[in-house]
Design goal:
Blueprint: E1 2-11, E2 14-24, E3 29-33, H1 40-47, E4 55-60, E5 63-64, H2 70-76, E6 78-81, H3 93-100, H4 107-120, H5 122-126, H6 137-149, E7 155-159, H7 167-182, E8 186-190, H8 194-200, E9 203-208, E10 211-216, H9 218-222, H10 225-231
The structure holds adenosine-5'-triphosphate.
Length: 234
């Protein structure tokens, strides 16, 4: 579904991604693990068109995404939930969700998807009139995910949805990610906690200092000494 091939990305003179190649097959949950600063967020930002690669290509459903704007990419079916959630604090929950549908014109479909988001996240329905800036961290994460779903994505990019959340809430968020995936959305997930990443993934990529150093199924990675030592604390 998504094929990233040999991309290089720079911030000024600093090279953040070095020849990264990655495939996300339709229907799967692919996770990216790696230390702080490895380049995981940079990769998601490049896929969603916020950063431009200096080299390499990105194809989505066989179509080149090179030169497409971030808005074109949302329209094509890729939504990005950024690290730190970035909800519009001075707008209500409902207004944030409606903004997620900004690329759509199908009013009936938008109403239908709003109901689906409220079924997935009953808490957002309870809080729909509340200003988003006053939500808890977990609720803001739900809102950021709900807002992304309002674009009706076929591929959802999630950047560290567990960050700063209590373990029970992380469990809830991960169960919802699995449900979103079962409902037909392919997922590319950045997750610092390798155990968690491996538990949900169909395929895992390990990124170190801008390069993919290892990839495989969770079963393959669990048996890798390199992964055990560096990421699984054993
Ligand atoms: P984290 O989990 O800490 O977010 P990450 O793996 O997502 O880590 P990135 O945020 O992609 O890492 O950062 C990759 C590299 O690019 C880091 O060395 C970082 O310092 C650098 N970098 C990120 N954003 C910028 C920026 N706006 N300007 C300059 N350098 C940046």
């Amino acid at each position: 579904m998504l094929n990233v091939e040999q991309i290089d990305v720079y911030y000024g003179h600093i090279q953040a991604l070095k020849g990264v190649t990655l495939d996300v097959p339709h229907g799967e949950i692919v996770t990216l693990i790696g230390a702080n600063g490895a380049g995981k967020s940079t990769l998601l930002k490049t896929i969603s068109g916020l950063l431009k690669p200096n080299r390499g290509s990105i194809h989505y459903t066989g179509v080149s995404m090179n030169g497409k704007t971030a808005q074109d990419i949302v329209k094509a079916g890729i939504s990005h939930v950024p690290e730190g959630r970035r909800v519009f604090a001075n707008m209500s929950v409902l207004e944030n969700l409606e903004l997620g549908a900004f690329v759509r014109r199908d009013t009936i479909g938008i109403r239908h998807d709003l109901q689906k988001v409220f079924e997935l996240f009953p808490r957002l329905h309870e809080r729909r009139k509340q200003l988003s800036g006053t939500l808890s961290g977990g609720e803001q994460q739900m809102l950021a995910m709900g807002r992304a779903l309002m674009a009706r994505p076929k591929l959802l990019l999630l950047d560290e949805p567990s960050m700063g959340l209590a373990p029970l809430l992380v469990k809830t968020i991960f169960a919802i990610i699995e449900e979103i995936n079962r409902n037909g959305t392919t997922v590319l997930l950045v997750e610092q906690n390798a155990n968690l990443a491996l538990s949900i993934a169909t395929r895992v990529y390990v990124i170190e200092t801008g390069s993919v150093v290892l990839s495989g199924t969770p079963e393959e990675l669990v048996s890798s000494e390199q992964v055990k030592m560096a990421y699984l604390g054993s």
